[in-house]
Amino acid sequence: MTKRVAVLMGGWGAERGVSLVSGGAAADALEEQGFAVERVDVTRDLAADLRATFGGEGPEVVFNALHGPFGEDGTVQGMLEIMGLPYTHSGVLASAACMHKQRAKAIMHDAGLPVPGGKMVPVGSFDGSHPLPVPYVVKPVGDGSSFGVHIVKSEADSGPHADLLEDSLFHGLALVEPFIPGRELTVACIGDEPLAVTEIIPTAGFYDYAAKYQAGGSRHVVPAELPEEITATCLDMAAQAARALGCRGVSRTDFRWDDENGVNGLFILEVNTQPGLTPTSLAPEQAAYKGMSFGDLVRWMVEDASCLR
Predict the structure, then answer these.
(1) What positions carry a catalytic annotation?
(2) Do 192 and 158 meet the contact criterion of CB atoms below 8 Å apart?
(3) Per residue in 188-206, pLDDT tens?
(4) Which of 17, 56, 129, 218 is 20 to 30 A from 145, comparing alpha carbons?
(5) Which CATH architecture has domain 4-89+298-304?
(6) Does the annotation list 296 as a binding residue?
(7) Span 97-115+181-292: which CATH code?
């Protein structure tokens, strides 16, 4: 019997557009793999959305292609647990922890993994002065796709101002971290098995939303041209991070490497529990490098889906 798969996508957050592309690509590939698929543009009444699928039968498995708050922060995962529907990617706890960058950093730090320092700062206290020695980064505690990220590079630059930080992204709190110079690296994991190291080279500026999702916004080098020690360390750290945070399915660990300081210049920035599945996305590229087609990847994700009670 053909398995019924509902692909969750869209939603109402800032990453809606990315989610629609990810979900559409996953749905197309799952249909090619022989699954019965319904695309669900998620509303706040998820139970009704799912009950309406497959002529009222509902799905047997949920493929979660949502991104950002309400999609990968544990909230949708909790609802699916209550409904008893197996779903792809990480469970409630890992999703919530990874979405809150500072909590994820604390867990990784306790596991002995190198993460940047920094602190959370109430947005209302920003008055244009520098909250950390420059250079530093100001970003939302719980959002993705580089929305709201500000890099302050010199003393001559103004520090953050409360009225310039969008409340819908920051919700009253900002994460301020030292800026790690050097190269942008990432490792995707299937379960806790690392695939490869990719170096991301933005066409201009840093790896922001445009660099991530616009054609030609960045160049991806896979496998990254790195010393063997750095490659091995990245792969090992990504696996350790996935285990420490309890990630399931496909995840991606992002690094900065200050190549002037060898292995001591390597830091984990964050772990993404639902990396993108767009034409320019990194996890599918690494799976392809390891000989796993996009169809094979999404099939594996459906077969791996479960509740975590």
Answers:
(1) 15, 145, 281
(2) no
(3) 999 989 999 999 998 765 5
(4) 129
(5) 3-Layer(aba) Sandwich (3.40)
(6) no
(7) 3.30.470.20
